[in-house]
Amino acid sequence: MAEHFDAAIRIGELEDSRLVTTRLCEHRRILCAAPAYLQRHGTPQVPADLAAHNCLGFTGLRSYPEWRLTRDGVTEAVQIRGTLISNDNEALLSAARLGLGIRRRPIGWWAPTLLPATWCRCWSPGGSTRKRAST
User: Is residue 76 assigned to a domain?
Assistant: First the structure.
């Protein structure tokens, strides 16, 4: 190839409209927590309920500390707060598994073997808040 070019894979909306983009896939996320956390603090039913929860924040996304949640075609932006923020997904995963808070994670990103069988999906797009997640 005679021309040099740069390529990048990004998650989220691209601010620089001069760049040429191709959507590779949809990047949907769900909110999950350990059953022990939900037993102590309750299960959020609507996005506004997250104000009363310990949300584990991932600083690796430009959108932090905002979580945009969509269900049934309606999107709400929620400013989250919590006692742990990190740019390390493994640290946040460990904290969530220990029942320290609610974690937002991509659907299908983590292998089922990394999560306990009782991992609870506490809020997800278009779905019930009472489902047990298998991933």
Answer: yes
The CB-based long-range contact list for 131-135 (8 Å cut-off, 24+ gap) reads 133/30, 133/32, 135/107, 135/108, 135/110, 135/111
Side chain identity at residue 73, one-letter code: G
Does the residue 128 lie in any domain?
no
Does 23 fall in a domain?
no
**Domain range for 44:** 29-123
Spatial CB neighbours of 86, under 8 Å, sequence gap ≥ 6? 56, 57, 58, 59, 92
CATH number of the CATH domain containing 98: 3.40.190.10
3-state DSSP call for residue 37?
helix
Phi and psi torsions of 45, nearest 5°: -100, -30
**Quick one: tokens of 123?**
């809020």
Using alpha carbons, list the distances in angstroms from residue 80 to 18, 32, 75.
31, 14, 15
pLDDT tens, residue by residue, 57-113: 999 888 889 998 887 788 889 999 999 999 998 899 889 989 999 998 877 655 554
